[in-house]
Amino acid sequence: MELWVTAASSLLAFLLYYNTLDAGFVYDDRRAILSNPDVIGHTPINALFENDFWGTPLTDPGSHGSYRPLCVATYRFNYAFSGFKPWSYHLLNVIFHCTATALVVVTARRLLPAYCMRVGTAVTGLAFAAHPIHTEAVAGVVGRADLAACNLFLLSFLLYSEHIRLREERHKKQCRHTIKDSVMRRPIPSNDPPFRLSCHSLVQHIMMNVRKLLKAGKAGPMKIWDACEVNGAVRLKCQFSGGVSEDSGELLQWVTLAGTLTFAAAATLCKEPAIMVLPLCIFYDFLKGTRYEEPYYKHRWRSVCALGTGGFALLYWRLRLAGAPTAFAAADNPASRDPSILTRLYTFAYLPVFNFFLLLYPFHLSFDWSMDSIPRITTLFDARNITTAIFYAVISKVTWRTLKNEFKKHQDNLFRDAKYYKKQNCKIKHKWNYSSKQYNRGQDCYERKSYHAPHKENVSSKKLLCPCTGCKHSLTDEHTSVCRASNNNNITMHNSSCICPISFAKSKASTTHRSVYRSPQVALLMFMAFMVLPFVPATNLLFYVGFVVAERVLYIPSVGFCLLLGLGAGVLTRNWHRGETRSRLFMLALLVTLSAMCGYTMRRNLDWRDEESLFRSALRINPPKAYGNLGSVLTTQGRTAEAEVAFERALKYRPNMADVHYNL
C-alpha cells in the first residue's frame, strides 16, 4: 500500500506537468540560461563556485548575490546534453518534482500518527503533486533551484530521523550491562561453577544468524555478554538480535549524521533558504520526548552540537562569499525603501499571512508581485492588520495548546509508569523477606504509603525486576531448559533464575517512546515547523530580499502545508469504515478539492508556455509590470500597434517607468 501511494503520487505529478515539456524559455530563464557563460561552458568548472546564479562574479558590485552553483551545474549538464532545446530542461524539472513528491510521502509516513497513516499519506502526496502554487517552480526553468533544494532538504531531514532511530535503539534495550561494571560492583564468588557453552546451543546460535542473514540481509552477532545480578550472584546471558551490532550501529549513527550535514550543505548550494533544515532537525530532536537517563542526553547533545557547528560553519562560509550587500531596485521591494518604520513593520508582518492564503487558495497567481501589486499598509487602521493579528494569535494559541497538551500527556505517562513500577518493586522486595515477617509487620508494603515501608531505603526507584520474556517466571527456578533453549539463553552462572535489574528510566522511555514519536501533537508542531522555518529567510523580517512575494519560494514551505492537509484528512476520516456521514462528506469535498487543484495546475501550466501568455495572465494582478513586458514581447514580434497600446497602459498605472518610456 505504501509503495502504491508513493508511485501514484509521483505518477500524478508527472502527468500534471507533462504539458510543460514543449514550453519554451520565459522571463528569467533567458538571463539564467541563454546569456549565462557558466551554462554555455565559456568558463571553467571552478567558476561555478565563484560566480552568482546569473554568471556574474560575486565580487562584482552589480552581482545579485544569489549563490547556487549546484543548480547552475545542472543547467550546464542540460546544455551539454541538448544545447538550448527547452524540452530537456523542463523534463529534468518534472523529474525533480516527481522525486520531491515521493520524498514528501516518505516524510509523511515517518511523521504521521498511525491511525491516520493510510489516508494522511495519500492526501499529502496527492496534494503536493497537484498544488497549483508549484507551477512557477516546475514550469519555469529557473525554479529548479527550489526543486533541487527541496529534494536535498527532505533527504537531509530523513537521514537525521534515521540517525535518531539508530541512536535510540542503543538506549531503549533493557538488561544491558557490561560484565566489567557488574564484576567491579560485586565480584563473583570463587566457589561458583564456571559457565559452560553447550555445542547444541552454539550450533543453534550460528543457524539463527545464518537464517537472519538469508532472510533480512543482515544478521546480528552475539551481543555483549549481559551480566544480571541477583542477591549477590552474577549470571551471564547471551542475547541474539536480528539488528545491527553495537559497533555497526555506532558507525551508522555517524554515517547518517554526516549524511545529514552533507545533504544540508548541498541543499544550501542549490538555494540559500534550505539551510533551515538544520534548525528543523534540531527542533524535531527535542520534540522526540523527554528522557531522564544521562547517556541519552549525552548522545542527543552530541548530535545537536554537530548540527549546530555544521550550520554555523556553513552560514559563516556563505556570508564570507556574499561580499557587499546587494542593492535591489525600489520597484522590486517598495516597502523596504519606505521611510516609515511602522509601514515596513505592518507590511512585512502581513506578507506571511498573504503567502499562507496563497497556499490555502492558489487560484490568483502571478509571475511577479513587485511594484505595489500588494499595497503597502501605511496606517494602523488598515483592515489587513486585523487579519494579521488574528493569524498570529491563532498560530500562537495552537502552538501553546499543542505544547501544553503534549507535555501534560507525557508527564501523565511518566507518572503512571512510575507509580506502577514502584508498586511492583515494593511487592518483590517484600516477597524476598516474607518469611521473616520483619518488614512492614508482615503486610504487603505496596498497600501502605511508601514512607511506612521499613525497607524503603533499600528500594531504588530507578530499578525494578523483570521476568524472563520467554517463560515469564522470575522468582523461582521454573526458568526451564526449554525456555533457555528457545530464547537462546543457555548460559547461566550460580543461579538459574531469570531476573535482572534494569534501568527504570529506560523502561519509562520505552513505554512512552511510541506515543510521543507518533502523537498528533508532535506531528502538528513538526508540520508547522516545516511550513514556517524554510520561509523565514524570505519574510524580509531578518534582512531585505529582492521581492515581496515569490510563488517559487513557497515550494519547500508547501511541504508543511500538505502535511497539515494529510493530518487533518486522516483525523476527520478516522471513522470512515464505520460509515459516518461526516467522514463521507469530507472525503467527497476532499476529492472535489484535489480535482480542482489538478485542473487549475494543468491550466496554469499553459500560461508558462511562452512569454506572451505568461505576461497576459498577470494583467489583473500586476498591470504595470505585465503591460511593460508584454509590450517588449510584441515589439520583438513586429506587432508595433499592439505594443504601443501595452506601453501606454503600463505608463497609465506607473508613469515613472524609464524603460517603458524608452521603448515607447
Question: Can you describe what's shown?
Answer:
The protein is mainly α. It contains 24 helices and four strands. Strand 1 (226-230) and strand 2 (233-237) form a beta hairpin. The radius of gyration is 32 Å and the shape is globular.
General shape? globular
Low-confidence stretches: 174-199, 216-244, 290-294, 427-467, 469-482, 485-516
Would you count the extended β strands for me?
4
The total count of helices amounts to 24
What strand order characterises the main sheet? 1-2
Relative strand content: under 5%
- Provide the structure class: mainly alpha
Main sheet attributes: strand count, strand direction, barrel closure: 2 strands, antiparallel
Kindly report the oligomeric state of this protein. single chain
* Terminal CA distance: 60 Å
What is the succession of H and E elements?
HHHHHHHHHHEEHHHHHEHEHHHHHHHH
User: What is the helix fraction of residues, given as a range?
Assistant: 55-70%
Q: Averaging pLDDT over every residue, what do you get?
A: 76
What is the radius of gyration?
32 Å
Summarize the structure.
The protein is mainly α. The chain has helices spanning 2-16, 28-34, 37-40, 69-82, 86-111, 117-130, 135-139, 144-169, 179-185, 199-216, 246-270, 277-286, 294-322, 341-360, 383-432, 481-486, 504-517, 520-532, 557-572, 581-607, 611-616, 623-636, 640-653, 658-663, and strands at residues 226-230, 233-237, 463-466, 500-503. A two-stranded antiparallel ribbon has the order 1-2. A two-stranded antiparallel sheet has the order 3-4.
